[in-house]
Batch of 2 targets.
Target 1
Amino acid sequence: MNNITKDRLATAMFWLGAGLVLLILGTLIAYIFYHGIKSIDWKFITSPPQSIRAGGGIGPQIFNSFYILILTMSISIPIGLLGGIYLAEYAGRSKMAEGIRVAIETLTSLPSIVVGLFGLLVFVNITGWGYSLMSGALALTVFNLPFLVRVSEESINGVSRELAAGSLALGATKWQTIWAVIIPSAFPSLVTGIIITSGRVFGEAAALLYTAGMSSPALDFTNWNIFSPSSPLNPFRPAETLAVHIWKVNSEGIIPDVRRVADGSAAVLVMVVLAFNFCARWLGRLIYRRLTAE
Amino acid sequence: MLKKRYFYDRLGSALTLFCASLVIVLTVSIIYFISSKGIATFISDGVSLREFLFSTQWWPDRPRAEGGPQLGALSMIIGSVLVSLFAVGISAPLGIVVAVFLVEIAPGWGQRVLQPAVELLAGIPSVVYGYIGLSLLVPFIRDNIGGGGFSLLAGFLVLSVMILPTIISVSADSIKALHIEWKHASLALGATRWQTIRMVLVPAARSGLITAVVLGLARAFGEALAVQMVIGNTRQIPTSILDPMMTLTSAITMDMGATIAGTPWNNALWSMGLILLLMSLFFIMLIRVVVRRGVAQ
């Protein structure tokens, strides 16, 4: 076999590999939607689940997932953004910066079940809150923070240095320059990054099993008193999210229509995550065009 | 007026430093808390480290008078190692092939179609992978290959798809970062594209490729729910890839809520958590060594 034939064969192998990845993705998405669409209707996505009988929905689970996402993001975005600003603008090559980078790498590769165990110990037991939305949101913050710090550091590093230099030369302080010049220019990639990490948070389950819990109390969606245990807005009530629900119905297997509920939940979950993905691309491009007037 | 501006300037930089150092505080407290719970097995339950790591005898409820509790986690440790090594065995070659394809074979088409596909694959939540494994792969294995379906095979197939995006994107980045002159020099010497890839590009990107594989391995080792849903969770060392088995992560997921805090069984779960933590620290260190070597060359 001469070298040209070998080269051709190798090229075929590369195309085969790429085709295989596309095939896998296509199969997964098609499978999820083909089975999911059949069980999704208005009643399914709004009604509460059944514990023994068939016919339950996933309304509270969808609400819990979004609520915990909002709580997580409102804790982790400020910290992550400021942390990223430190790394990009102040840290330089100091020992401190090196330590922070090692810590970020460590947190990033930590299995999410270990984050969940830490959450169980600190946010559930030591705080005395029990399984609650807040404990879950704090555990997810631990899970999400390293990614957000990295996203904001990278977005800030992507801003041209001349812009900042111009602002400093006009007499602005470094802090003013960061908020009035650098952050606005980094905004498109910041938004994109934040939405993509939101998708990860939305689909996470292992870190939530033993922090937000695997049950949801009966919720009264007309009760807006956040201190009432039946209010959906109470952050100190247990809350099963959509991702946890998929796991729970399958591992318990009590309800007779596991298959239907799990198919529908998986399809809704994937749809939301895909929506986050597309939204991130689209919004990033839109804001970029607005800012640069291209 | 000027004073106020400088005050805010100082305050701002202090605030950013505070937030950044929170990351260190978190890391240290995770290591501290998990370790302090994880060593209880060895201190208060009197189980030796050797027994925990190298014995398969798992009798957490046996009273002390009858020689218990026995907490040998070997079958779960081997389970975790096997399932993640097999997964990497499939994903590493496939991932590197796809990464080379993205950068060298079809950059245009690859960027437009394959890159977003890889990102979507990375975005699918792990419970969904587990669920597809459970409802599609497990019955398929049961009907067409043999055994009960819940098996090591199902576990590592699910994992290999899950870690594929990590391996592809990290490998592709490291190949992209190579000097283009090396490729040009090789092609100019008359090498074919395949020879260039095999003898110049892949060896030159070696440290990045190893990093990609280690990151994939770390992810596979620590994955809990997707694996738990398809491996059958039988506490035994599998003798064939069609046997059901158990991993450290699946033991923690299933038993943490079913055992009472402070009992030997529960303590053993925290020790397993500690093993997961130590393994993830080990992988990080491994990557640092590989990267440093790569830079030194």
Target 2
Amino acid sequence: MAVSVDEAVSTGPARDRTPPARRFGGRGRSVLEVALLTALAVVMLFPVLWMIETSIKENRDVYAVPAEFFGFTVTMDHFKDVFVAPDGGRSDLSVAFLNSAVVAGVSTLLATVLGVPAAWAYSRFAVRAKKDQLFFILSTRFMPPVVVVIPIFLMYRQLGLIDSKLGLILIYTAFNVPFTIWMMKGFVDEVPAEYEDAAMLDGYTRLQAFWRYTLPLLVPGIAATAVFALIFSWNEFVFAIFLTSSDDVRTAPPAIAGLIGGTTTDWGLVAAASVVFALPVLVFAYLVRKHLIAGVTLGAVRR
Amino acid sequence: MGTVAVQGLCKSFGKVQALDGVTLDVPDGSFFVVLGPSGAGKTTTLRAIAGLDKLDAGSVRLDGRDATADAPAERDLAMVFQNYALYPRHTAYENIASPLRARRCSAAEIAAAVERMSSLLHIERLLQRRPAQLSGGEMQRVALARALVRRPRAFLMDEPLTNLDLKLRVEMRTELTRIHRSLGATFLYVTNDQVEALSMADQVAVLKEGKVQQVGTPTEVYERPANQWVAGFVGSPPISLLPCHAEGDRLIGAQGWTLPRPRWTTAEDGRPLLLGLRAEDMSVERRGHASLSGELYGLEPLGDRTVVDVRVGTEILKVKARPTVTGTPGEQLQVTVDLDRAHLFDADTGLSLSEAGR
């Protein structure tokens, strides 16, 4: 149920205004369409359904053969185990969720604070070699994390950032800033520069003009971009597993992965943790949808 | 006080030279119009004066003080944008109040000023609406009110009437002239509409490809165009230009016609010239001593007058006539020419040769 960054880029500022009717053709195709979409939905949603079922089954039902889709005993014990340790204290998983929230939240905040003004500058000003700079910024996203994780690991060891939340926050910020710049540049481009020109003639400085008149118009775009950055940081696995080791630093994805293996695997706990882990993403994905629809409806300028 | 003087403005966008040494002197309290076709550099000039774009070269002086490096806010100018640039999330009231808020005026002052402006521009009932709830004409008035709410050094207007329909445009023309007169402020107004320029301006600067072609009163620009291009751009229907050369006391047309040589021209014999004739300086109804023969090519009835197209050789002359004029295409015609009001241009340089002898 993760929303990948690639999807985020392509759905960016909603430019495709073709009405759906024309895009998909007439009624004749709709039967095939519905069939394909249904098939796809089943394939995509079955694992989700299975995860949810497993999370509320008792352990003996989890291993039942043939698998039981209905009529098993519903239990919430796994969810309790996600948050509460056997000794009654806070579980390692709940610490991991908290770490994920801190790391994802702070890195998204940093990426937004750094990326939005940069996007504004790239959109508004004549920057030398602008296209090359933008390409360079994007190119940092071309490499899969696995490629750079070893050098970063070595650098982090020298800097003492290994196994620290700050280390993860920095690397996620570094990955989210390019994304924020690119996505926000699209949104800033949509806001006519004349608002700032007019504000400057009203007597504001350029930064005041940006702050008072452009920034409020960017809020839907910023929200959408931040949600995508948040989802990226929340889901990130490779850096998290390589750069952290202790339970009090580790984020949720490696912590959940750590439940699998050993002599026995408590699949109910894994499923319950996964459900808890997926919920924020579901909520945020829903928010993105709302913001993209509200999107960039900026009137008042006749073009 | 409100004088604006720019000297040698140069600005290029990539390979395009938008401004190429523009020099203008806008006197205090004048209605100064910069007229030119699209792409002439009118808006760039205005934005340079406002401080919105950096210049490659040249200086901007406001009230005699060098303001080239000043930020827009420091220049004490107000501007009306072609697309109005009203803040979309703010009401008309907030939009008009913005320049006063930026200058930290008190709420009472702001309320009084907005009220004064809205009654001047008849927009009292629109104040609580947002730009999206306003029509083009209403947005235009609000944008105007936002500029006029302060008393800046000068008002810059970037084709403010272009997006309005014809009726509203004519109405606002009168209104702007009235406002200018009542404020006595300096207006620097940019347009591609020569009717606007001629009807509103004290002074017109004609701009083409980033160069000033001529500066003068509307009458000067119309009656004594500095060059062939200005003559062709100002005036509707456009001036008719006929290739010819002088020979003794005659003008010999490239199409074979002959006219008496105007007394006032100093052009040397044999030099290629263009004879410029405005529609109202020719007639197919009157008889005179100087005339061209041609054939009727077409009629354009315009209600209050009819423009008669007459073909002379391969050239088409546009001649103004009474609305009652009739004729059938192909019919032979004599076009009487008022040579005292004609123009002669050097065909190579385009410069007017009319002034020397007049």
